Amino acid sequence: MKPVNRRHFLRLTGTTLLGMTLGGITLRVNAQEQLQADDPTAKALKYTSQSKIDGSRCGNCMYIQGEDGKEHRPCAIFPGKLVDEDGWCSAWVKRPG
User: What are the residue boundaries of the High potential iron-sulfur proteins family profile domain, all occurrences included (predicted)?
Assistant: First the structure.
């Protein structure tokens, strides 16, 4: 068995951790797709990409995530999916503040 060089071990460990971190971020970004109206959860929660209720839209809901001003953003109600900022569903709750 060949002895392990400390520098080689640290370099390998650091590279592995960096790869795992960046790989996870890439997978998360690629996994998100726009929510479709025929999605079973979207149907159950009456999701629509265009809210018809004054003052109630995904953009001001407490479940929306990500940066303000983006057209499509992640939502805690629909994991792995992006919702339209102007959309609405029956789980809508006004964001505090």
Answer: 29-97
